[in-house]
Structures are given as C-alpha cells and as structure tokens.
Amino acid sequence: MTPLDPPNPPLTRKDFTSDQEVRWCPGCGDYAILAAVQRMLPELGVRRENTVFISGIGCSSRFPYYMNTYGFHTIHGRAPAIATGLKLANPQLDVWLITGDGDGLSIGGNHLMHLLRRNLNLQIILFNNRIYGLTKGQYSPTSLLGKRSPSSPMGSVDNPIAPAAFALGCGARFVARGVDTDAKNLIATLTRAHEFQGTGFVEVFQNCPVFNDGAFDHFTAKDVAAQQQLHLEHGKPMRFGDDKGLRLRPGSLDIEVVTVGENGVTEADLLVHDETNRAQAFLLANLEPPAFPVAVGVLFRSDENLVPFEVGMHEQNKQARARGLGDINALMRKGHTWKVDGDPTGDQPG
Amino acid sequence: MDTFASTNSTSQRELIESVVIRFAGDSGDGMQLTGSQFSDTTALMGNDLSTLPDFPAEIRAPAGTTFGVSGFQVHFAAHDIMTPGDAPDVLVAMNPAALKVNLRDLKPGGLLVVNTGAFTAGNLKKAGYDKNPLEDSSLDGYRLLKIDITKHTLQSVESFGLGNKEAVRAKNMWTLGLMMWMFGRERESTAEWLRGKFAKNPNIAEANIAALNAGHVYGETAEMPQGIHAYEVPKARLQEGHYRNVTGNEATAWGLLTGGKLAGLELVLGSYPITPASTILHSLSNLRAYGITTFQAEDEIAAVCAAIGASYAGALGITTTSGPGLALKTEAIGLAVSTELPLVVVDVQRGGPSTGLPTKTEQSDLLFAVYGRNGDCPLVVLAASTPGDCFTMAVEAVRLATKYMTPVILLTDGFLANSAEPWKIPDINSFEPFPVKHRTEPAGFHPFLRDPQTLARNWAVPGTPGLEHRIGGLEKNYDSGNISYDPDNHHKMVKVRAAKIAGVGDDIPLQKIDQGDDSGDLLVVGWGSTYGAISSAVLGARKAGLKVSHAHIRYMHPMPKNLGEVLKRFKHVLVPEMNNGMLVKILRSDYLVDARGLNKIAGQPFKIAEIEAEIRGLLASA
Ligand SMILES: Cc1ncc(C[n+]2csc(CCOP(=O)(O)OP(=O)(O)O)c2C)c(N)n1
Ligand code: SF4
Ligand SMILES: [Mg+2]
C-alpha cells in the first residue's frame, strides 16, 4: 500500500467524530475504546476519506456510526468477508474491522479464521466482553465455564476459547491485546497493529456493565492491574508486579511464575519477550489468572514477509494485464469459429 | 431421423434432415470429449445443433457400473433446431452399463452401435444383465452394429508403443472416427485439437489420430449389416455472421465481462465451487486480463459478502452459485437490498431440495429468487432462455444492477450451463454503453439521495473526499440516510424500495409473442431453458392447425408491463415448467388468470412431444 500524504492541516479528534448520538449504555467500555481510536487516528496522520470502519452486528459493531469516516455496519459475523471484497476492489483503503466475541468467534468464526490466514492488510479490533451484549446477556464463546446467563441458568458448560490463541492458531501474523480503560497502552498497541503490513489482530478486554460487569476486574481493576498484567515489550524480560517474572520451568515447555531475588532467581533467568516467536506467543495467549498474569501488548508479530492476499491478487491482475486490458470481442472469436455468409435471411440459431 | 423425400442418387450417402446421436459409456471412456468434438465439427460444417451432456453424480464411479455412465447427446440438422432432441436415432454404447441405462430412450428401429469388446462377463454382471443382450433377441427391434471397438483400437495404435491403458483409451477416438464416417464429418479439426491438447506428448496425439482415422477407414471398408450405411446432413440456412458453439456458462462469463466493460467498472467475483455453476468461476478465473478479480471464498456467504464489499468500494460485485449456495446467501442479499448496492447473483439451478440432484437440471428456485428473503425485500430477477441468451441476460443483469443500485438474480440452469448451441458471436461495440458515475460532489450529499426518475440512490465510494458516510442494514431515514426507527419512515422506505424495483418494469422490453398470433385459443408461457422444447412443440401444434402461441418470459421480476394484457388475449394459458408449479403461481396471483401448469420434475429437460401432447389434450378437452 502506498501511504497517502497526511492531511494538511492535521486533523483533530473532533474531525473523526460523527454527528450521531452515541447509544451505548452509560459506563460501557465501548466508549473508552471509541475515544482511544478517535484520539489515535489524527496521530496516525491518516485521511478520513481513506479510512473505512467495517463491522458486523452487536453493541460493539455500532462503532462505525460514530466515526466520521467511511463506515459499513454489515450483518452478523460477516464483516471479515465484506472487508475482503472491499480490499480486493481497492487495496489502498485503510480498513478497520470492528467485531465482538459473538460476532467474530461464534457466527463469524469461519470468516475470521480465513481472513487471518490470508493476512489481508487491515486491522481487527475484537471487543471481548465475554457476553452477547446486544441480545441481552446470553453467554458467548469467551464466557467462562459456570457463567450464569439467561440461556445458561445452571451455569455454562460450554468450554471457552481465548481469542488471541484462536488468532494464532489461524496463522495470524500480528496478535495483540489491550484493555478498554488503559487508553495509553491501547493506543500504542493499535498503532503497532496499524503499522503492520498484514492483518493486525487486537483483542480488547471490554467491560459490559449491564450484562457482565466486572468480568475483567480481577486483572484490570486499579488495585490489581500491576500484579495481574504482564505488559509485553519486545526484547525485555517478562516482569510484572513488584518483583515477579515468568520463566520456562526447567526441563519443560511450561511457563512458571517466579520471584526475582528469591531462590536464587535473577532477571537473567526470565524469559525475554520475542515478538517474532509464535510458540512463545501461544504460551502467553493462554495464561490465565489467578495462577498467571494476563499478557497484554503485542504477543506476536511475524517477521516473515507474507504478501497480503489483496496485494498478491493485484500483482496477478497486473501480470494478467501486462499488455493492457483484454479485448472481449477477440476473446469470443478465439478457438473453433466459422463464418456463414450470403444468407442474411436465414434462421437465427435457436 | 427425419429423412428427405428422396435420397441423393449421385452419392451413396442417404440425405437426411436431422439426426440425434447419443454417445454413452463409462465415465472413463471419454464420451464428453467425443461428443463435444463431434459437435464442434458439426458446427464447423454448417449444421444447426444443440447438445445435452449428462454427467454422473460421482466423480469416479466404479468402472462398468450403471451409475458411472456418462452420456452426451447431440442433435444436428439441415434446418434451425432448438432442442437436443427428444429421443436418439443413434445410440453408441461403449459398455453394457451404457446400454442398460440408455436403451429405453432409443427410438424404435434406431441404430445401436455397441463395443462388443466391453461385453465381458464381469461388465455384464456389473450392469445387472443375467444374459448377454447381444446374444438373445432382446435387441431385435433395433438396427444393431456390433464391433469389437477395443480390439480395433488396439490394432490401430499398435505401432505407437503405448501402454495397454493408454492404448485402450484411444477407443473413443476410434468410435468418433466411425461416427464421423457415418455422418460425413471432417476429421481435420479434431486432429488439430488433439495435437494441441497433447502438444507435450506428440506420440499420444498421433496415436489418437491414428485411432480416429482407423475408425473412419473401418466405416469405409467394412461390410455393414443390412440397413446400415452412411448419411449426409446438408448445411442449415443460418443467418449471416461469425459463429461458434457456446455453452450457457461460457456465455454467462462473457456476458458479465461485457457488462462490466459497458458499465466502465472493474468486476469482483466472489464464488464458492458448486455444480453446475463452478465452470463460470473457472472461466472467469482465467480471464483476469479482462477486468475481473476472482476470489474463491471460504463459503457462499463469504462469496456474496465479498461481492457486496467490492460494490461498496465502487466495483461491481458478482457471485455465482446454485440452489444450496443461494440459500446461504439470502441474508447478505438482503443487506445489499437494504444498503441499495449493486450486486449480480447468478443462480445456475439444479435439482432440489437440499443437495438434491447436483448434476441434473431443474427450474425450482424461481419463487425463492423472487420472494425468498426476510422482510419485504424486492430485487430484480432475470432468466436466460438459451445458452446464447445467457450472454444477453448477463449484460442486462449488470445494466439493471448498476442503474438501479440493486441486487439482480440471474437464473440459468444445469441444462443451459452445459449444453451448447451455435451462437452468432455478438459485437460488443454494438451494445449501448451504460457508464456508471460515482458521486463526487459533496454539496447536498447524503448516502440515500435518490435519482428522482429511477429512485436509485447515489453511489459514493470510499476514497472520495467529503463524502464520508455510514451505511448498514438498519433502517435509514428517507431524508438523511441516518438510522431511523420511526414507524412512518419505515413504511415509506419499504414502499420506496418496492417502487424502485417496480420502476424497472419501465426499462425492460414489453412481452412479445415469440411464436404465433397475438390472440388465440392457447398461450403457452415459459421461462428459462424450456424455450426450445416449447417453441418446437408450439410449431408442431400450429402445423396441425391449432391456434396456439408461445410467449417466453425473461424478466421474472418485475415482469413486463403488458404481460397481464397479453395473457388475457388467449382463452387458455399453459405453463410448462421443470418444477412443481412456480411461474404458474405467480401468473395466477399477479394477473388473476386461470393458468394451468405442466410440470416435469425429472432432472431432465422437457421433450417436445410431452409439451405437444399436453397442448393437444388441453385444446381437445377445452
Ligand atoms: C443472523 C443473526 N443472528 C442473530 C442475531 C442477533 N444478534 C445480534 S448481536 C448478537 C450477539 C452479539 O454479541 P457480540 O458479538 O459479543 O457483541 P456485543 O453486543 O457483546 O458487543 C446476536 C446473537 C443477528 N443480528 N443476526
Ligand atoms: S449491553 Fe453491555 S456492551 Fe452493550 S452497550 Fe450496554 S454495556 Fe455496552
Ligand atoms: Mg460480546
């Protein structure tokens, strides 16, 4: 993608805010994510007319209406497929795909899988509130076992999936996480996703105060965040809390939590985050409190170049059209043809 | 065979007007190739023709079984013809299973050519014969030509040093040579085609040509049984022009490209393989030089959604499928109706419900196409009536989709898809272009601003400065395009969407009478691939003095504005359809006429005689 010149004069947050009244419930985490994105876009220097938000259906999928850019609120689960067609038709567009845990992982899981493996050059923000918000609180594919909801009154026995692990399994090349209320880190992470040439997948832990309030409090609440979140930085040892860190349990492929300074453990024993290591990213994606911290930031970024799908397709188009657009009249006259002359009054073939 | 009154005395060939030949054999016997080579040559020699391939549902059914039989019927004539023929005059049976499956269709007294080399005890058993039918009297009602084609083929390719399997394979070419002798066809174009096909393996090409020639020589020299000899079918009087054979799926692919060119738009095809639509995907995937990007999606939903995404981006999205795929696409098609984006959906119908009869033809998606979506969800539905008409209607689909900002469903079917006819190749420069203009003017813009005449909304495309806007499947305010839950507004929007589609009725040709007088005792109304059979049946009935006419509908929704009035000029209306009564239901409900149905739901096209008998019966009892 040839980046367009940044807008001149530079845009502000207000320029990216549409005139539509935001209709999420008071206190919904979606507000914070919207604000973070509206603050970030001017910093990215992108143009409004070149920016497209595509969503499926769900509370989160209302997002495009609030952005003063191009936007398409599509149907449940299908945003990845619509975005694929959009990018095939115009690879220059800067596309953000907005989806929820139900939209992206339940009804649209198939499309999400294929988008990720095809590595289209766009960004995905998956709003994970571990619940179906819009339809009033049923459990979702990310709801924890035992979750009581209108459709699981006895508690869910439906084993959940970790979105980041799903994405890695699908062959995603950029997988990251953020927290709705942590604007600074969220903006930094989304910015990295935007820089990435390929699909940038970002799961955002989003609180739904109405149907799943506090689902992430055990690692996002102010008083525990530092102890329960591991902020990943490429090339830096995996440290969290006051003196905690992660290392490989000697002789195994498991991760364990250790305390630096105890039992002879030093910082040199800790795992050093390597964004480009997919196996390590899998381990990080599956860490769950209380035994482990939740890994946030960029879990994985592939350093192998894989041409994004739409770019590959356009390269082929160019090859096919190297000598200009084909002549349809000539095409239809190739192969076995014959001329009938001298009988203008004859029958039209049936 | 329709014979001329007198035979031509200067040659030993008997002059005949028309003939129907069916080649039948095991899937591995190459009958489709044999049939299509015979047809191509026949077209080159100036006959009119129509073909009907019949594939088994299994890709590689066990050899020798009845369900592995593959057939190819070709009807050719010295005059204009419209169908592949009701019943074969000649049946070529390459093995016992082919005989078993096809014999019941052969005309009494018809010519039966069998490869005795394949009538082994094992093959007879697999085909379910207790006794060898070649050795009892069960085939006495036919003119039987028994040849050990396998043995003759092996002899003819002996000098090429092929393995046994490769050598036996050439028997379809030997058979083709024999039939080319019998019907006076030239072999050059097949030889040329073989050289091209086996360019990397000239030895195989030459071996096949040797087999082809040997079959021909056999015909010339061998003593034929009583009543079997060579024929000649003179040229047909076709209209002046440049011709080729075309199948419906090829014509559809070229029509879509032509539509894109006339609209000045890049095309994006999203498709998921499904019989009998896949060959459109294959063709277009090969034609990226002609302004199309082709995308094999993960399923039909993704395919249509990608097409919609492409249309949103300002290209024209297309998706091609068959019944089960159309079922999956319905929700997304509703989105395109609601967001008023152009979209072309090609449905190559096949036997249903569910997986149904994948390789057989049917017309049973009509009601589904016209009505089968949630909500009041009108769109344009077109139907092609011949393989060549697939081209015209595909162009028309693109024109209407882009002019009215609407999905258009083009219905074809398995019969049209695979059958071929000589086609006068159109000059695309003779079509009126219909260039699309995306909106660029910001002043006064909102996304659902409508053209007062067509009611089409303006098409603003991402990338255009100043036109940033949001669309979606929620109801929108008529005046601003913003989300609206207002009751009166919703009522108005449903009416506007319906009026827009109804208005297409002013932009399509009036219904014509395809054959016969403007009024009379009976109007036979058809749609889709029944065109040829109805046309021939009406011709027959008219020759017998009956006051019958034929009208064929190509615009299924909305229908031509004068249709109601046309129907009312006839005492009776008969609607032959390859379904359980769909068009007849629409005509009865929309025009309050007492139309009657004639339904054939056998996975096979109508025979002319079936329709003609119904016409006679109806008028006799009326
Ligand atoms: C085809 C279809 N099925 C069901 C629905 C109803 N529906 C709308 S949103 C939704 C779940 C949304 O959950 P999620 O994606 O997690 O979004 P959230 O509301 O939590 O942000 C469902 C089931 C629909 N709109 N379309
Ligand atoms: S239901 Fe939950 S997710 Fe939806 S808007 Fe309300 S708080 Fe937000
Ligand atoms: Mg949710």
From TrEMBL, chain A:
Q: Does the keyword Oxidoreductase apply?
A: yes
**UniProtKB keywords:** Oxidoreductase
Q: Does the record bear Cell cycle in its keywords?
A: no
- Record Pfam families: TPP_enzyme_C (PF02775)
Per UniProt, residues of the Thiamine pyrophosphate enzyme TPP-binding domain are 57-204
Q: Where are the transmembrane segments?
A: none
Name of the protein described by the UniProt record = 2-oxoacid:ferredoxin oxidoreductase subunit beta
Automatic annotation (TrEMBL), chain B:
Q: Where is the Pyruvate flavodoxin/ferredoxin oxidoreductase pyrimidine binding domain?
A: 268-477
Q: Quick check: keyword Oxidoreductase in the entry?
A: yes
Q: What keywords is this UniProt entry annotated with?
A: Oxidoreductase
Instruction: Give residue ranges for domain Pyruvate/ketoisovalerate oxidoreductase catalytic.
Output: 28-215
The domain of life is: Bacteria
Cross-referenced NCBIfam families:
OAFO_sf (TIGR03710)
This chain belongs to which protein, by name?
2-oxoacid:acceptor oxidoreductase subunit alpha
| Species for this entry | Nannocystis punicea
